[in-house]
């Protein structure tokens, strides 16, 4: 529904109220799927540098074995989701939701699902040092499972000048349709609380709030029961507003603290982890188990049997669709993620990665397909933007390729939540323009850097040539002087 602004009592600015459509899969318990014939495990599933393959074609690997090692500090490693044979390391055409393709390790499962024998956890994590806990999280390749895929060990490692006083666990799941986090909270609440205790110990703090929107009564009940005897952990039941699950919005909703553009939550004493990430952290610390599977919601009116599935990373989306009884004949669009921030896919060979929260199959009636009209300067998009941006102006500049002027309207602060596009009466696909603008800015930065490098090199060459010319001249002059001195020497 259009022009439906967030009106509930809440703290952050902007936001919208799309129909949550969670009923389709909210009551469906998490199921496992059978192991596919091939897994395509991308080496770049996280923010930061891609991992480097550390196996070769023909290698036999165990479940949980390291197959891609992290490169540099902001990076994460990748592990085998099951035991099997490495068939190759290749550019899988559908290796990324962007459709650009990327390097994947292709693994043929051997059917034994045999864990690596050397994986061990910490026996008594509540008496372990923070460094030991953080190292387990790093080794396990845990990244944020809410979609951002930022390496979790970095969030758990505040600098000395950053004083943390609160951990927030993000159980908001504000994106319509998605229910994987709600099911995790309902079915694995004790494990989440166990993980929170470990994280509080590692961070040396005493205060954790779990934020959950009020449209998840099952999750609220389960988590409330699990935290009953732990006074350090409380629950904040929040009104349903999109995009409350975005980190900065959630912090403002729970604590009232505003995180300005360019700053991180950690600068304001807060660390936020998604509920599924908390579960992955627990498995890493207690058992040494790496992040090799995740829960994915398969939903929408276009799928025959909506479900919440626990799937190995690298499973092609087609396998999830097949498990759910296939697509309906008149399906119009399939999206990875939710309807607000997801990316449409056309090749169902795309594998599930650590950040894949949903597969959404939509019929025409679920979509809003209207022709784009000229902007009428109504300002609805400005009212809806939780980042205090002026979306109409950003789109105008991106559309006219005024790349140099995009920085002035803070395009890079846009979190691509889609709230502005949702309320736009002119049906302008604003987020597409923003993605295009960001790409153009990155390209222009690269071109400028290249130009700068070329000019530095040419200047250096010119300096060198001038120096060599001057040297030559100096030597000639010395020789001339020596010759002249020789000629004037008295003959004895
Ligand atoms: S972009 Fe859309 S919402 Fe924004 S001012 Fe223009 S018409 Fe209104
Ligand atoms: S401009 Fe960006 S952050 Fe603001 S509402 Fe639009 S998509 Fe969201």
From TrEMBL:
Cofactor remark from the record: Binds 2 [4Fe-4S] clusters per subunit.
Superkingdom, natural source: Bacteria
Family: Belongs to the 4Fe4S bacterial-type ferredoxin family. RnfC subfamily.
Region (Disordered): 447-492
InterPro entries assigned: 4Fe4S_Fe-S-bd, 4Fe4S_Fe_S_CS, Ion_transpt_RnfC/RsxC, Nuo51_FMN-bd, Nuo51_FMN-bd_sf, RnfC_N, Soluble_ligand-bd
Gene designation: rnfC
Entry EC no(s): 7.-.-.-
Places the protein is found: Cell inner membrane
Record key words, sorted: 4Fe-4S, Cell inner membrane, Cell membrane, Electron transport, Iron, Iron-sulfur, Membrane, Metal-binding, Repeat, Translocase, Transport
Residues given in the record as [4Fe-4S] cluster 1 binding sites: 375, 378, 381, 424
Subunit and partners: The complex is composed of six subunits: RnfA, RnfB, RnfC, RnfD, RnfE and RnfG.
This protein's name: Ion-translocating oxidoreductase complex subunit C
Domain 4Fe-4S ferredoxin-type: 365-395, 405-434
Gene3D superfamilies tied to this protein: 3.10.20.600, 3.30.70.20, NADH-ubiquinone oxidoreductase 51kDa subunit
Membrane topology: Peripheral membrane protein
Family annotation (SUPFAM superfamilies): alpha-helical ferredoxin (SSF46548), Nqo1 FMN-binding domain-like (SSF142019)
Location (main, coarse): membrane
Cofactors named for this entry: [4Fe-4S] cluster
NCBIfam families xref list: PRK05035.1, rnfC
Biased composition (Basic and acidic residues): 463-479
Binding site for [4Fe-4S] cluster 2: 385, 414, 417, 420
Transmembrane stretches, start-end: none
Purpose: Part of a membrane-bound complex that couples electron transfer with translocation of ions across the membrane.
Organism: Candidatus Magnetaquiglobus chichijimensis
């Amino acid at each position: 529904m259009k022009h439906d602004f967030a009106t509930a009592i809440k703290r952050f600015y902007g936001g919208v109220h799309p129909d949550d459509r969670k009923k389709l899969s909210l009551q469906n318990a998490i199921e496992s799927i059978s192991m596919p014939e091939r897994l395509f495990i991308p080496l770049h599933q996280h923010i930061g540098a891609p991992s480097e393959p550390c196996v070769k074609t023909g290698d036999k690997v165990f479940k949980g074995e390291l197959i891609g090692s992290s490169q540099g500090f902001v990076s994460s490693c990748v592990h085998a989701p099951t035991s099997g044979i490495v068939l190759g390391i290749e550019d899988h055409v559908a290796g990324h939701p962007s459709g650009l393709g990327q390097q994947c390790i292709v693994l043929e499962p051997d059917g034994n699902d045999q864990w690596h024998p050397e994986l061990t956890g910490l026996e008594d994590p509540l008496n372990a040092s923070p460094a030991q806990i953080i190292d387990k999280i790093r080794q396990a390749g845990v990244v944020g499972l809410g979609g951002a895929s930022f390496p979790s060990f970095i969030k758990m490692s505040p600098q000395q000048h950053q004083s943390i006083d609160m951990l927030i666990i993000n159980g908001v799941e504000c994106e319509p349709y998605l229910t994987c986090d709600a099911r995790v909270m309902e079915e694995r609440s004790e494990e989440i609380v166990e993980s929170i205790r470990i994280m509080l110990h590692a961070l040396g703090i005493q205060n954790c709030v779990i934020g959950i929107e009020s449209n998840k009564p099952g999750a609220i009940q389960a988590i409330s029961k699990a935290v009953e005897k732990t006074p350090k952990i409380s629950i904040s039941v929040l009104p349903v507003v999109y995009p409350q699950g975005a980190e900065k919005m959630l912090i403002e909703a729970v604590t009232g603290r505003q995180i300005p553009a360019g700053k991180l939550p950690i600068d304001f004493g807060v660390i936020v982890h998604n509920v599924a990430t908390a579960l992955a952290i627990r498995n890493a610390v207690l058992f040494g188990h790496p992040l090799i599977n995740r829960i994915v919601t398969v939903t929408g009116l276009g799928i025959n049997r909506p479900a919440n599935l626990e799937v190995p990373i690298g499973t092609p989306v087609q396998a999830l669709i097949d498990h759910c009884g296939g697509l309906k004949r008149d399906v119009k669009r399939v999206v990875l993620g939710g309807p607000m921030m997801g990316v449409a896919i056309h090749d169902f060979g795309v594998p599930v990665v650590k950040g894949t929260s949903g597969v959404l199959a939509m019929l025409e009636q679920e979509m809003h397909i209207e022709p784009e009209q000229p902007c009428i300067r109504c300002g609805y998009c400005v009212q809806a933007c939780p980042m205090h941006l002026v979306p109409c102006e950003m789109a105008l500049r991106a559309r006219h390729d005024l790349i140099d002027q995009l920085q002035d309207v803070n395009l890079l602060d846009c979190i691509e939540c889609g709230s502005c596009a949702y309320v736009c009466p002119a049906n302008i696909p604003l987020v597409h323009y923003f993605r295009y603008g960001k790409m153009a800015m990155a390209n222009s930065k690269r071109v400028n850097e290249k130009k700068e490098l070329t000019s530095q090199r040419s200047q250096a060459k010119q300096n060198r040539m001038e120096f060599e010319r001057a040297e030559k001249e100096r030597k000639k002059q010395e020789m001339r002087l020596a010759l002249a001195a020789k000629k004037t020497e008295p003959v004895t």
